[in-house]
Structure prediction request, 666 residues.
Amino acid sequence: MTAVNREIHLASRPQGWPSAENFRLVETEVPKPGPGQLLVRNRYMSVDPYMRGRMNDVKSYVPPFQLDAPLDGGAVGEVVTSEAEGFAAGDWVLHGLGWREYALVDAGSARTVDPDLAPVTTYLHVLGMTGLTAYAGLLEVAGMKPGETVFVSAAAGAVGSLVGQIAKLKGASRVIGSAGSAAKVERLRALGFDAAFDYHDGPVRQSLKAAAPEGIDVYFDNVGGDHLEAAISALRLHGRAAICGMIAQYNDTEPPAAPRNLALVIGKRLTLRGFLVGDHGALRGQFVREMSGWLRDGSIGYDETVVDGIEHAPEAFLGLLRGENLGKMLVRV
Amino acid sequence: MTAVNREIHLASRPQGWPSAENFRLVETEVPKPGPGQLLVRNRYMSVDPYMRGRMNDVKSYVPPFQLDAPLDGGAVGEVVTSEAEGFAAGDWVLHGLGWREYALVDAGSARTVDPDLAPVTTYLHVLGMTGLTAYAGLLEVAGMKPGETVFVSAAAGAVGSLVGQIAKLKGASRVIGSAGSAAKVERLRALGFDAAFDYHDGPVRQSLKAAAPEGIDVYFDNVGGDHLEAAISALRLHGRAAICGMIAQYNDTEPPAAPRNLALVIGKRLTLRGFLVGDHGALRGQFVREMSGWLRDGSIGYDETVVDGIEHAPEAFLGLLRGENLGKMLVRV
Prediction:
């Protein structure tokens, strides 16, 4: 009997908010690795906001997902069969072919991870791309300096919660986060944020002003829209915004009309800078050293929201877009 | 008989577009300089777009103009009486008290200029703040490098025409300008712009795409609105926008709704940076050396639109906001 592999295909491109109908669970045969390849049994996969953009058929920084083909994204799993030097059955590897139970991975795009050094899931967030996004965006893109006030949106998410904690560890005098529920706000306080608010409780501009009456120096944007507009108003002279994501508008079908106060960038000499973590690989060594230390000594806390079963991966992704996750949204495959 | 001084006061704060009623011509006595002061007979004064912002009663990077008091701004004139060391009657000086025939200037805020080195008016633009704005914005804020493609709006204005010419002198491979009339477009071509268009001729995005089919690397923004939105679409990976002004919206009474495509800053890793020339004084020495050389050898061309008589200064300013100037708008006092 041939072993069965289950994977999630893109069945149709969403218009606006995606739904379960855009995905299809497909059974295939478990593939056989050729020379230089590994067969990996995925154990955890990541769902990330940027995947929404890849569901549109538009040119972007990553190619769009193909219809009737498996989605992809970060995953960790165990090597079942290795046809590549340097990898053996039983090794844990990090790679880019999630959304399937078994992945046929070119050895060059897999990286061994040590499950004894840190939980394997952390290589998908705190110690992985998510963590480097927070670290590089805050320190390199926004150039945060000790004594500054930092505001981060989607602060209870995987990136945002690290941004706030790294800011405190690097000497920010005040860190403010926004999130989408009272429970998340409470969690942010436990993680060491100086102030946090639920953006449903009133206009973001007012909530931010109450949390940072003297303004902010750095804004780490995961949201766009009202949050960015409020941040532009709150930024002080020579303030910087690192623009990481605009999840508030990923499902918009009409172009959004914010921020209306962009002219403030002149008088306040603000810098708004978009970035992708892929440009900041040179920081990886330094990042891993620092972050591993913080994890070991308990300076960094993190949350995971884990959904079980590849068949529920679409629900996990949709839940992420609706903000149902605390910390990193993962699927246990 | 006491000599009469005429000056322009702000009679009321404009709502939206200013008009002649917002200004008042007032006759006063010619003042007497105290110790450390100069009495200056102004000969030319500058009208600049940023003055519109100062007519509103809002906190900004410069304090608002006061009601029933003279406006101020860059001017050059001759010293009539000096009560300060280092200045003598007959000296030409540059200072900040325009909008009046006679100015009582603290010696510390006056700078002698040499009418034999360059026409005195050029200290109000090519060799002055206008020139440094173009130079610093293009080279320091946007970090233009040789071989890049540069787009500048309000390109037939005092700042814009210098931005385009400095870009060519510094090795830009292609320079594109937008302006508000066919005559201005023709002038831009004569000044060495590789392409120019009248923004009335169609959507800015289309005109820019036709002029720069492969995109742009640097945008120097004097306009905001549609121009900024079009530039964000046209900017290539790692592109930069130096945001100098947003004249298109200075007279808006409703917040403007552009740019709707701001999310592109992420995937393209764009930087949008507002700036004020006042932060770039450290470049002044280098700027004056280079610009003087370019002026001497004829590498830089410039235009002046001169209005005669202090009583017509409000009209000159209103004409500037309507784009009626070619190059620098000046008032001969």
In short: Chain A has a mean pLDDT of 94. The longest helix of chain A spans residues 129-141.
